[in-house]
């Protein structure tokens, strides 16, 4: 491969506020990039089940659950789940001690605390987006399946600070409040320590026998920071978080203004 393109989904491949569909302009850009010898990979916080609607667009592989899962066409998958004892400790800290909420992601399913469960059900009724409902279960129905990543929702910034202070150092936390926080609430994502989108990309490139100097990362939110830092070229969408723009090598146009295809042309991935 001439190079490796790693792309976030929400706010990067698709406009999360509109249709959740990839535009024809973006699909054409991806097709041209592949024809020009570039590998195209999704790099998402979603689990593998949450990527189902994007399986037909010709991607070469998937880094998902914030780097905890890697599936590349023709290669043995790699999974790095959260240790069960740490998971038990984490559930107690979030749900009981801090009175927060959580959404646990296995390879294909989601296990939500009650308020999160109701939130997603209501969201789907209103928007018809994401398609989470078919794989969404209550946390009480968790069957012991490996959990790759956890979305955390906390009452406020002070509670988030307390959570970070009490979090086991064997776990990694990325705050996404700047991108996804609900009003005054704080949000973030938990994986095993060392497991990030950026680290997932490094492992994916290693699996492919490639070189990190040939990597490009495209994102819009703060859970994409490690991706942009790991790749040789880190590109933030024009609609991205201001904090992410500060660490990006390049800021392209808004997703609704053909941001991806413009970035591809800027770096001569396509013409």
Oligomer status = single chain
Largest sheet: 8 strands, mixed
The gross shape turns out to be globular
Strand content: 15-25%
* Low-confidence runs: none
> What is the string of helix and strand elements?
EHEEEEHEEHEEHEHEHEHEHEH
Biggest sheet: strand arrangement = 5-4-3-2-1-12-13-14
Whole-number average pLDDT?
93
Q: Report the C-alpha radius of gyration, rounded.
A: 18 Å
Structural class by helix and strand composition? alpha/beta
The N- and C-terminal alpha carbons lie at a distance of 18 Å
Number of E-type strands? 14
Number of helices: 9
Q: Level of helix content?
A: 25-40%
Question: Strands, helices and their partners?
Answer:
Layout: E1 3-7, H1 24-35, E2 38-43, E3 61-64, E4 69-72, E5 78-79, H2 84-97, E6 101-105, E7 110-112, H3 114-127, E8 136-138, E9 149-154, H4 157-166, E10 171-175, H5 177-180, E11 186-192, H6 197-208, E12 215-219, H7 225-230, E13 233-236, H8 242-247, E14 250-251, H9 259-266
Parallel strand pairs: 1-2, 1-12, 2-3, 7-8, 12-13, 13-14
Antiparallel strand pairs: 3-4, 4-5, 6-7, 6-9, 9-11, 10-11
